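Run Acyl-CoA reductase (LuxC) through structure prediction, thanks.
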Amino acid sequence: MLDIAARISAFETLGRFISQYQDERPDEDLKKINAYFLEGFRHTITEAGIYNNWFTKDNVEFALQQWSNALTQDNLEAWVGRYPKEAFEPKTQKTIAIIMAGNIPLVGFHDFLTVLLTGNKVLAKPSTDDDKLLPFLAQILVAIDKRFAEVINLASGQLKEFDAVIATGSDNSARYFDHYFGKYPNVIRKNRTSVAVLTGDETPEQLKELGWDVFRYFGLGCRNVSKLFLPEGYDINNIFKAFFDFSHVVDNKKYGNNYDYNRAIFMMEQHKFLENGFVILKENEALHAPAAVVYHETYSDLDSLNDKLDGLENQLQCIVSEDKEVNNAITMGEAQQPNLWDYADKVDTVSFLQSVQ
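Sure, done. The structure for Acyl-CoA reductase (LuxC) is below.
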């Protein structure tokens, strides 16, 4: 088994490799690995978008940038330093089945990283929507340190012989996961989304940052904002003005089809909505909006809204706001830039894996 220092070093090297995705001057320290993998890496980025049209080059490269930023020596050591050393020195290696979603690029990489960094074995089943990038990065990790070959197994069929499960999917798939994996120690993630709370005091620049939280990955991630809470009397034209720079999203065929479909449905059912050619704003108390749609709801009292959001904790991934009085809010523009210790569904997977021992 690799010791924790070797594991951190390997992932730090992987982070440096990833950072070369658009660098015209490759890292000289990675010359040998680059000779075998760098051209293939760039091809894989393109291939991912061919097989899944949601995975545009910009979105794949943004995901890669976030991981290259996260996988630094300082970040990895800061993350590890939050736990007792026993969390990364298991008495026995456990095989952890990871069933990955495919809604955004490399959405399953954090689980992959966590299982390996804690000294356990990965038995992963990538989504067919995202089965190019992570297998390629796994190859590079093995090239960095061949001992990883013994602890990484990427499966396409039925998963067998494992000790615990981490599964991510929809509310429907979660019922399936509960049925088949309920007898194992498990983390089963369901549908979540994110919301933004506006006060009316936001600057145009801050609202544009909110646009990234809405439109990055075409709004398909659980950290994407799909619902706006607006104060009474708010001028919704402020939103349309700030979002104008994101009009290119409708050029994506899949997004454009969703926009046209939802617009047609709302018109046939005579629903009230506002639209600007690339996003539909619709008043609705629900949290989860379909692609190309953002719901909004009016609030009159921030204390009451905080209470409401606290009650929705199990359905929310993030709350975005510039108002410091909003509970647990993060700054606009940062929804898709989590730290290593910002866990999906607020379930600490390092602690979970420690409990499996």
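Residues 193-330 form a domain with the Aldehyde Dehydrogenase; Chain A, domain 2 fold (CATH 3.40.309.10).
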